[in-house]
Write a structure and sequence with these properties.
8-stranded mixed β-sheet; single chain; 387 residues; Rossmann fold; 13 helices; 13 strands; alpha/beta
């Protein structure tokens, strides 16, 4: 009797077939993105709400691997209002960072591609759909309108260049027209002082390895703020820092956001940070949004079993427990996702309908939305919105 193949096993022939098919798809998408002198009318759009800085609308970002297609972001829709902070939470691999990298068009190419949906970015006098923009046009958005603070400052900074030269380069590239070397140095020192570095002249001459983790992260924040962007993406900016420095960095981001009237997309695993920073919260699981609402909605009235599990698994000051709660089971295989609710196999609150197709979004209140069958009955009785 032939041996049964292990789950997920791919023969060489099958892997080659997948690779060929993927190459066809990615070559087509790359060709479209690499076009030169594309007329602006092709990617101009209108914001659904002019009070939003960014609107993600049914965004699909896939990675075409030799093992199959990973639907890393699978139909994500949410808004980042002007002057507000939106916290994006969820476990590793749920698509938080890929959503933000789609906005910056910094996906690992050619495997990573936006295949569907819109990313509407408000530039003030007009709006553009970043998902349709060629790479050439996106260069003018990065830094000037959207900037990113990365997770690990030591890998974001070049170890062989001085801090001053690295910030000068950002200013020169995005906002250097008509500025002399002295003007750029003056602006860099201003930025270093703005992010709370006292010895700005000294730090200007230093190399990254001469600074502590907190100082390096402040330098990364200074680089992100160099051109007063409309949207700041903070991708776990406090992960590598101790608690006291983390608090300082959060205070700094809050005050700088108000100073330059920017919006912040704050990506993190830390619910404590979200509670302190965010006006709105988006909870992601396996490439989809399971719940979204104001910070008050999510923290005081969590609705989705995954959000409830996340809340239960965080330690609470003053409460003694023998063992912290952890959500049972594991995330489904991203190459072969089930056709029912992705959280069903880990859920402890299932209802009869949970075996059906993936649940639609249900409005619990005007600001609070959840994708869960538990709320279908309630909403049908109340005549609520099941979209």
């Amino acid at each position: 009797m032939a041996k049964r193949k292990a789950e997920g096993y791919l023969s060489g022939k099958e892997a080659r077939r997948i690779s060929r098919e993927n190459r066809k798809i990615t070559n087509e998408l790359e060709k479209k993105r690499k076009r030169k002198k594309v007329p602006e009318s092709e990617y101009l759009t209108k914001m659904h709400d002019p009070n939003n800085a960014v609107e993600f609308d049914n965004l699909h970002t896939y990675f075409f691997t030799d093992a199959g297609t990973v639907k890393s972001v699978d139909g994500v829709s949410y808004e980042v209002p002007i002057g507000k902070t939106v916290g994006v939470v969820g476990e590793s691999g749920c698509g938080k960072s890929v959503t933000s990298l789609s906005l910056m068009q910094l996906l690992q190419r050619p495997q990573g591609q936006i295949v569907e949906g819109e990313i509407r970015l408000n530039l003030g006098d007009k709006a553009v759909d970043v998902a349709k923009m060629p790479y050439e046009a996106v260069q003018h958005l990065r830094g000037n309108f959207v900037s990113m603070i990365f997770q690990e400052p030591m890998t974001s900074l070049n170890p062989v260049f001085r801090i001053g030269d690295q910030i000068n380069e950002v200013i020169e590239l995005h906002d250097g027209e008509g500025k002399s070397r002295e003007d750029m140095k003056k602006r860099t020192i201003e930025l270093l002082e703005m992010v709370g570095i006292a010895n700005s002249e000294g730090v200007y001459q230093m190399f990254p390895h001469e600074l502590s983790g907190g100082m390096r992260q402040r330098v990364c924040i200074a680089m992100a703020l160099a051109c007063n962007p409309r949207v700041i993406i903070a991708d776990e900016p406090t992960t590598a820092l101790d608690v006291t420095i983390q608090a300082q960095v959060l205070d700094l981001l809050r005050s700088l956001k108000d100073k330059i009237n920017s919006s912040i997309m704050f990506i993190t695993h830390d619910l404590g940070v979200i509670a302190e920073m965010a006006d709105y919260v988006v909870v992601m699981y396996a490439g989809r949004i399971v719940e979204k609402g104001t910070a008050e909605d999510i923290f005081y009235h969590p609705a989705h079993p995954y959000t409830i599990g996340l809340m239960a698994s965080k330690p609470v000051v003053g409460r003694q427990v023998d063992k912290l709660y952890s959500i049972p089971g594991k995330v489904p295989n991203p190459v072969n996702m089930p056709d029912y609710c992705y959280f069903k196999d880990r859920c402890e609150m299932c209802v009869e309908k949970c075996g059906g197709e993936y649940p639609c979004e249900v409005s619990i209140s005007p600001t609070h939305k959840v994708s869960c069958y538990r709320y279908y009955e309630i909403k049908n009785q109340e005549g609520g919105d099941v979209s």
